């Protein structure tokens, strides 16, 4: 990939399970470590663990810092869907802490995070996914989309209250962090298939796509599921005060469920130590 091509990568959107982020096998860190280029004395470059690549025009020493990263995105979006939480199928309470290594259960979440220079962290602490953004110092914006079922709304709200205090290190030696923007917080809701149906890999509702040009349309075709697609969910703004007052309740049929989504954004800024 040429420098011009790499410069086109400005936004990355990851749909990921908690396991991928919090796994002790370094799955998350391998992504970002693989974006860093290292150079030989001759100006050839290689990616750690990926092997050396010769280049026709070796990169001059003075330009190697600029050419250090395979990609340098400005924005990163991470989406947690309701089936991405640990053991969602067992109705486990929600728990997450980006500065702990491995799974964090609900009762283990830290209520007060004190940011430290990345150089002051232990090797184990540096492996936590919340401390891995130092591999992509080009970031200026991080958005995390949290989704769960409506009956776990209070659990997710409690997590968001803590997330407002999360500070992700970008260049900690310069006191540069990704800091939560309270005004960016927005809540949404949508209605879809029940979790139980998702576990059985079935679709509770669908609509039939009809084509006037299709001939021989009979019941046997419908029975086979041909032309059936899931309904497109509609994301609606959620008003907590209105809902708590008994208004704004979504229409939920017996074979569907209401889901709750919160978007929160962090911005790059200098933090007073």
Low-confidence stretches: 43-64, 201-230
Instruction: Kindly name the structural category.
Output: alpha+beta
Q: Please tell me how large the radius of gyration is.
A: 23 Å
Mean pLDDT: 77
Work out the strand percent. Answer: 15-25%
| Biggest beta-sheet profile | 8 strands, mixed
Total number of helical segments?
8
Distance between the termini: 39 Å
The total beta strand count reads 13
Percent helix, as a range, is 10-25%
Secondary-structure element series: HEHHEEEEHEHEEEHEHEEHE
Overview of the molecule:
A hairpin with a 3-residue loop joins β3 and β4. The protein is 17% helix and 25% strand. The protein folds into two domains: 3-190 and 259-270, no CATH class; 194-234 and 251-257, no CATH class. Residues 43-64 and 201-230 have low confidence and may be disordered. It has helices at residues 3-7, 18-22, 27-33, 123-126, 153-163, 195-199, 219-223, 240-244; strands at residues 11-15, 38-39, 45-47, 51-53, 75-80, 141-149, 167-171, 176-180, 186-193, 207-208, 228-229, 236-237, 256-270. The longest helix has 11 residues, at 153-163.
Defining key terms:
single chain, 273 residues, alpha+beta, 2 domains, 8-stranded mixed β-sheet, 17% helix, globular
Briefly characterize the structure.
The protein has 273 residues and is α+β, with helices and mostly antiparallel strands.
